[in-house]
Specification:
Number of helices: 3
Helix content: 10-25%
Strand content: 25-35%
Largest sheet: 7 strands, mixed, barrel
Shape: globular
Number of strands: 15
Distance between the termini: 27 Å
Structural class: alpha+beta
Radius of gyration: 19 Å
Oligomer: single chain
Length: 273
C-alpha cells in the first residue's frame, strides 16, 4: 500500500544522554526512470525489492535492445536520463498504480495521459518523447517494462537514502541552496550528522520494524547537476563534492530484509543486527 501526498527509540550519544532521533522526512518513488518522482506518506516494502513501482518503467533509446521476456540489468546509458537529457526536468509526471495511467505535465499543463501498462499507451508516450527530445534521442524512444524488473542504476533491487545534513554541508561548500530532490532518493532523513550515513555501510538499520542492510555509498553522476526546478545545469555537483570532501558520494543504497510499512515520521535506528 502506498499513500500519496511505531517508531524506534532515540539513539544515545557517547555520554549516554539521548540524542535527537533520526527521522524519515520524505518518501518518494520514481515510476519512470529519469522522470520526476511522486511523494508518498507511507508505503509497504517487500523483502529483496525496491519501493513498489520505483523505476518500473524506462525510456529506452531506439538503438537499445531490451528483452522484456528475459530482462537483464543494463547501464543507464541505454536509457533517456537527466545526465544527458536535462530537458526531461521540464516535465512533471504522475503514475497511478491502480489504473496504470501516466500523466505528463509541461509548464503546468497536461500534455499526455495514457495507460502505460498497455502497448497502445506506451506507444503514445514514446511518440510524445520522440517529438519532445528530437535529435537528443538515439532513434525513436521506447517505453519499456518487464514485471518484477527494476531499472535501477545498480544491479541490486534496493532503495536509496539521503541524509539532509549531508546536503546542507554540501550547500556550505557550493555556496548555494540545493534542492535534495536533485539526488532522487527514495527516503530522506534528518537527525544524524552530515556524512555519518557512510559509517552504516555493511550494517543493518531499522525503520518501524523494517530491517535494511546498507550496501554501499552512492557515487554521483552529472544528473545531479541539473536543477529540478529550472531544468538547467547550474552547479557541477560531482566536482563540488569531490573538491569539498574528496569523494563523489551522496546517499546510501539499502536492501530490504523483511516486509513491512515505512511512513514519514518514522524513526531510524542503526546497528540492529
Amino acid at each position: 500500500m502506498a499513500t500519496t501526498s511505531g517508531s524506534v527509540g532515540a539513539s544515545k550519544n557517547q555520554q549516554g544522554a539521548p540524542s535527537m532521533a533520526i527521522t524519515i522526512t520524505d518518501i518518494r518513488r520514481y515510476p519512470v526512470k529519469g522522470m520526476s518522482g511522486q511523494q508518498l506518506d507511507r508505503i509497504n516494502v517487500t523483502t529483496g525489492l525496491g519501493l513498489p513501482d520505483d523505476r518500473r518503467f524506462a525510456l529506452a533509446h531506439g538503438s537499445t535492445s531490451f528483452d522484456s521476456k528475459d530482462p537483464q540489468w543494463m547501464p543507464k546509458s541505454n536509457f533517456l536520463m537527466l545526465a544527458k537529457n536535462e530537458k526531461l526536468a521540464q516535465l512533471k509526471t504522475a503514475f497511478d498504480s491502480e489504473t496504470g495511467h501516466l500523466s505528463i505535465e509541461r509548464g503546468g499543463k497536461q500534455v499526455v495521459n495514457a495507460k502505460i501498462t498497455d502497448q497502445m499507451g506506451r506507444m503514445i508516450v514514446a511518440q510524445f518523447f520522440a517529438g519532445f527530445l528530437g535529435d537528443e534521442a538515439r532513434g525513436a524512444p521506447k517505453l519499456v517494462e518487464s514485471p518484477g524488473h527494476m531499472f535501477s542504476d545498480v544491479r541490486e533491487k534496493c532503495l536509496s537514502i539521503i541524509n539532509l545534513a549531508s546536503v546542507l554541508d554540501l550547500e556550505r561548500v557550493a555556496r548555494a541552496q540545493l534542492d535534495p530532490i536533485r539526488f532522487r532518493g527514495n527516503i530522506m532523513i534528518e537527525g544524524t550528522p552530515a556524512w555519518s550515513e557512510f559509517d552504516w555501510v555493511g550494517q543493518e538499520i531499522e525503520i518501524s520494524g523494517v530491517r535494511l542492510k546498507v550496501l554501499s555509498e552512492i557515487k554521483r553522476c552529472p544528473a545531479t547537476s541539473v536543477n529540478p526546478s529550472t531544468a538547467e545545469r547550474d552547479i557541477n555537483i560531482p566536482l563540488t563534492i569531490q573538491r569539498g570532501f574528496g569523494h563523489f558520494n551522496m546517499g546510501i543504497y539499502a536492501e530490504v530484509l523483511n516486509d513491512g510499512e515505512i511512513s514519514i515520521g518514522d524513526s531510524l535506528a542503526v546497528g540492529t543486527a
